[in-house]
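Suppose you are handed only these lines of text.
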Amino acid sequence: MNTYREPAREIPVTHAVDVVVAGGGTAGTAAAVCAARLGLSVVMVEQTAIPGGMLTHVTHWLSDFANKGGFAREFITHLRDSGICQWPYHNLFRTALYLDELVDASGVRHLYLARVAAPMRDGDGRVCGVIVESKSGRHAVRAKVVIDATGDGDVAALAGASFVVGRESDGACQAISLSHLLTNYTGPAISNPDFLALLDRAAASAGNHYRIPYDRARIQTLAGTRQCIWNGTPHVCGHDPLDAASLSDAMVALRRQCREFHDTLKFHTEEFADLEFGPIAGLPGVRESRRMLCDEAVSYPDAVAGRRRPGGLFLVTQAIDIHKCHEGEPDIYVEKIKPYHIPYGALLPRGVENLLVVGRCIGGDHQTLASYRIIADCFAMGEAAAIAARAAIDENRTPRQIPAEQVAAKMAELGYEQ
Ligand SMILES: Cc1cc2nc3c(=O)[nH]c(=O)nc-3n(C[C@H](O)[C@H](O)[C@H](O)COP(=O)(O)OP(=O)(O)OC[C@H]3O[C@@H](n4cnc5c(N)ncnc54)[C@H](O)[C@@H]3O)c2cc1C
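From them, the structure of the protein bound to flavin-adenine dinucleotide can be written out as follows.
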């Protein structure tokens, strides 16, 4: 490959804190807020302008909260009590505002529109912070413990930890999606089967052969609204979520699907004639990319057998829900599981010290990822990482030296079923 040697340079250390959380998405926001509430100084670095990641850009359906305590329970209780969630759907825009409140109240120093570019290493090779690229230039955030909540395991990978990508057989990742809103729906309430039949007729009348790229499509209004329709149907396969150009192409293809969906409905049905095109999410819905090789991993046999382990942090109860990796495969594959443990070791990338991974990049396999990647479980991972960070700092140890049972006991105290 053609290369360029980047000149070495001194950069300012703009923050020195107990914990830096890379990625202020689903698991990252939980990790940052929980760590700050435990009395730690925290910086959360997020590349977008909004906390929540998939939770506030893509996902409007919530589940697997029933057996969760702590942050997850507080979150869902607030969403239900305030009407942000009309179970099981939530209003992503209002959820983002609520996350702002939680982050601010906890004292987390957030850095939005800032991207983690690399880990910092100390003289012993341990991770000791992150290098950030932002409008302030290139700067460093030094920290005693680093939590990688980038979804893709960016920090762990850049720190040299090993990982696998996608399906074991061919490395293919599940379809990437996009969410967007259609506004100004003034037609009657319509059932899902009627909606799908109407869409088929509209496509035939348009002669555009439009077909929803995902056969479990639902017509669903945004929680709390009557006139806004949430569209989560765009799906593309064959794009590499870790390749900038491929991901960029995916976004354009997904936006085209949004337009086709809108145009087919608006211009070829009476019911949707008043429809207007609303906002499109600025983040692609990436279901799968890196899974870090960690001290422990969650596997398909664990999920179907409902494996419990000593020191298990919490239980996942969500079914496996795999979206197609290639066109021509079934759009979705669903399989029930028995409640199984997420072990603490699945948060500890092998060969790297002072770093925890949380969210969909933890140690696991392709099939089981499609179960534990769910919002409530990502929150629980974030909270567990915060507890481990507090213990590591108090005891002057690395997170790896903290016994799993110690973290699990705190999770149980917070009401996480084990
Ligand atoms: C299309 C789709 C539909 C889904 N539907 C559901 C559903 O209905 N119900 C459900 O419970 N779950 C659903 N999920 C799963 C769930 O939403 C995600 O798996 C989960 O939110 C992932 O959380 P995370 O913290 O790992 O990643 P994310 O929420 O993606 O957070 C990662 C964050 O890190 C930021 N980031 C990435 N790299 C960097 C960097 N280098 N520097 C700084 N910031 C960075 C990103 O901007 C993002 O905010 C869905 C997922 C997808 C993709």
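What can we learn from it? The two ends are 49 Å apart (CA to CA). The chain has a mean pLDDT of 95.
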